[in-house]
Specification:
By secondary structure, the protein is of the alpha/beta class. It has nine helices and ten strands. It is about 40% helix and about 15% strand.
């Protein structure tokens, strides 16, 4: 029996987050186009990454890959690491993470508060540098670690296939016409997209990524210049969009000041893409219900470059 079990802590409840209609903050969408976002900060660890983190941890525990004194090892830009860290604290296993040195200060403080062991990598190498470091750590001590490998672990996309996709379908009563999501691991877009296509065959799936390799959209990948995650399937997308850091920042600021909702960088980018799509559909006289995800709250980034004046 684990320490957590002995204390009577139950397995966590992840998912079933609210779907927020942000259209009233953007009257240029007209009356026939709505844009909605999943408020993923409502998860126990404050982000969408709780979904994949819990699926990865649950499968590893059930299969015996994360047992005894094994340490969960992975790379993370912050939120997946936070998911591992609070799960480790609750369920009784240790967590070791390779993270870019550019990680937001508040996320670093959260990771340290949960007791995760952190190894910082070159900020200029971003998430790819952290991936390489985690692989080196595993190679040096293979018997010490369970390598969660969120970028290759099928549980990353499976979490969204099993939870995010069905939730969106149910919350929109099957009326979702477009799903837009940014690419980091690719798990959200691939998993939710695959399930939505099964549930609503007419849905349009639009992937989004930063407009270049040097960007301020923490958690997102410019696929052409990055290590492409093994779980990413580019055939899922019906269309692709790119968003600049400035466009994402502008969308996030607009929602904060018109709608009273704070988004992080990836949420701002998802919103910017959904709004651009929505405006195009409005101009065409189309009726549409565009759904995206807001991976975390902007509160974790206040004082950081993205929210700096």
């Amino acid at each position: 029996m684990s320490v957590a079990a002995a204390r009577g802590l139950s397995d966590p409840t992840v998912g079933n987050t609210p779907l927020i209609d942000v259209s009233p903050a953007f009257p240029e969408l007209g009356r026939r186009v709505r844009v909605l976002g999943k408020a993923e900060w409502a998860n126990p660890g404050g982000s969408i990454k709780d979904r994949a983190g819990w699926f990865i941890v649950r499968e590893a525990r059930e299969s015996g890959k994360l047992s005894g004194d094994r340490v969960l090892l992975d790379s993370s830009s912050g939120n997946t690491g936070i998911a591992y860290a609070w799960l480790g604290a609750r369920l009784g296993f240790k967590v070791s993470l390779a993270v870019p040195g550019s990680i937001a200060r508040r996320r670093r403080e959260i990771l340290e508060a949960y007791g995760a062991e952190l190894l910082f990598t070159d900020p200029l190498e971003g998430s790819d540098g952290a991936i390489r470091e985690a692989r080196l750590m595993l190679k040096a001590e293979p018997g010490r670690y369970f390598y969660a490998d969120q970028y290759s672990n099928p549980m990353t996309w499976r979490a969204h296939y099993e939870t995010t996709g069905p939730e969106i379908f149910a919350q929109t009563e099957g009326r979702v016409t477009h799903f837009v999501a940014g690419l980091g691991t690719g798990g959200t877009f691939v998993g939710a997209g695959r399930r939505l296509r099964e549930l609503a065959p007419g849905v349009r799936l639009v992937s989004m990524e930063p407009d270049g390799p040097l960007h301020g959209l923490e958690g997102l990948k410019h696929m052409e210049t990055s290590i492409v995650p093994a779980i990413y399937d580019e055939t899922v997308a019906d269309a692709k969009m790119s968003v600049s850091t400035d466009e994402a920042r502008g969308a996030a600021r607009a929602l904060a000041r018109r709608g009273g909702i704070l988004l992080g960088p990836s949420g701002g980018a998802n919103l910017a893409a959904a709004l651009r799509l929505g405006r195009d559909l409005c101009a065409q006289g189309r009726e549409a219900l565009v759904v995206t995800v807001f991976p975390d709250s902007g509160e974790r980034y206040l004082g950081e470059r993205f929210w700096a004046p």
